Amino acid sequence: MEILSGKIVAEAVKTQITADTILHKNNTGITPHLAAILIGNDGASETYVASKIKNCADVGFKSTLIRFDGDASQAAIEAAIVQLNNDTAVHGILVQLPLPKHINEQQIINLINPLKDVDGFHPISIGNMVLGNASFIPATPYGIMLMLKHYGIDTVGKHAVVIGRSNIVGRPMSILLSQATNPGNCTVTLCHSKTQNLKAICKEADIVIAALGIPGFLKADMVKEGAIIIDVGITRVADSSKKTGFAIKGDVDFDAVAPKASFITPVPGGVGLMTIAALLTNTLTAAKLAAQ
Ligand code: GUN
């Protein structure tokens, strides 16, 4: 069993981005600039956005955080997006999800200039990705693809089972793995909460991507010997032994599943770090588009 280390791969990606950013600045005078919009004060969203901002600084990007109270109006958020769309010094725009219930999320996403859509959630970005001509790929599935590539994992002809059909992770992941790329070229089964015989389907999988958000869901008796296990879960679970009062738990029962796996991602230290690395990659791409 080999651990797929998000720490090692994300550092490698960040080192490359840092070097490319210096080159880009020298050649064009442009410093990549990410603008993040955070609405309300959900603890997990605060942590993710703070991490995104810090990582921008690590690789030499500029960043701007725009905050709104949890009761902000749809119009106020939309006005901020229009302003960022028009600001030529901003190359990437992301709106941290989930949004408060009174906000129409899709309407917000649709307003982002697709050339600045570094989250890859805009319908044009999704459409380009599905057609195999991606502009921006959603950060978590993109990060997983970068990780598989880094470790040289041969996915051709393998049966990949994706658990979870979210627009952010499961569905784009299933599309990317099905494409005629490397990694890719998988036979993909996309499972969800209405799937029957989930255990039997998982047991057939050469690759399992667990992205359903239920801590410890994937048990040892659900996986085949030698399977590749990718854990996307990042649920906060109360833990009084931690300074923060919580521990981060993945969707995989790691201790039981790891001995059966050929490769497995840990939580923390796995996919989460790759999500950030992929976001940085997309932001550099956006800055390069702006220089064309
Ligand atoms: N919430 C959970 N994951 C993500 C992500 O990748 N991007 C944004 N904007 N919000 C998220």
Automatic annotation (TrEMBL):
<keyword id="KW-0368">Histidine biosynthesis</keyword>
<keyword id="KW-0028">Amino-acid biosynthesis</keyword>
<feature type="binding site">
    <location>
        <begin position="164"/>
        <end position="166"/>
    </location>
    <ligand>
        <name>NADP(+)</name>
    </ligand>
</feature>
<keyword id="KW-0521">NADP</keyword>
<comment type="pathway">
    <text>One-carbon metabolism; tetrahydrofolate interconversion.</text>
</comment>
<keyword id="KW-0560">Oxidoreductase</keyword>
<dbReference type="InterPro" id="IPR020631">
    <property type="entry name" value="THF_DH/CycHdrlase_NAD-bd_dom"/>
</dbReference>
<dbReference type="InterPro" id="IPR046346">
    <property type="entry name" value="Aminoacid_DH-like_N_sf"/>
</dbReference>
<feature type="domain" description="Tetrahydrofolate dehydrogenase/cyclohydrolase catalytic">
    <location>
        <begin position="4"/>
        <end position="119"/>
    </location>
</feature>
<dbReference type="InterPro" id="IPR000672">
    <property type="entry name" value="THF_DH/CycHdrlase"/>
</dbReference>
<keyword id="KW-0658">Purine biosynthesis</keyword>
<dbReference type="Pfam" id="PF02882">
    <property type="entry name" value="THF_DHG_CYH_C"/>
</dbReference>
<keyword id="KW-0486">Methionine biosynthesis</keyword>
<dbReference type="InterPro" id="IPR020630">
    <property type="entry name" value="THF_DH/CycHdrlase_cat_dom"/>
</dbReference>
<keyword id="KW-0378">Hydrolase</keyword>
<feature type="binding site">
    <location>
        <position position="234"/>
    </location>
    <ligand>
        <name>NADP(+)</name>
    </ligand>
</feature>
<comment type="function">
    <text>Catalyzes the oxidation of 5,10-methylenetetrahydrofolate to 5,10-methenyltetrahydrofolate and then the hydrolysis of 5,10-methenyltetrahydrofolate to 10-formyltetrahydrofolate.</text>
</comment>
<comment type="subunit">
    <text>Homodimer.</text>
</comment>
<dbReference type="InterPro" id="IPR036291">
    <property type="entry name" value="NAD(P)-bd_dom_sf"/>
</dbReference>
<keyword id="KW-0511">Multifunctional enzyme</keyword>
<keyword id="KW-0554">One-carbon metabolism</keyword>
<feature type="domain" description="Tetrahydrofolate dehydrogenase/cyclohydrolase NAD(P)-binding">
    <location>
        <begin position="138"/>
        <end position="289"/>
    </location>
</feature>
<dbReference type="Pfam" id="PF00763">
    <property type="entry name" value="THF_DHG_CYH"/>
</dbReference>
<comment type="similarity">
    <text>Belongs to the tetrahydrofolate dehydrogenase/cyclohydrolase family.</text>
</comment>
<protein>
    <recommendedName>
        <fullName>Bifunctional protein FolD</fullName>
        <ecNumber>1.5.1.5</ecNumber>
        <ecNumber>3.5.4.9</ecNumber>
    </recommendedName>
</protein>
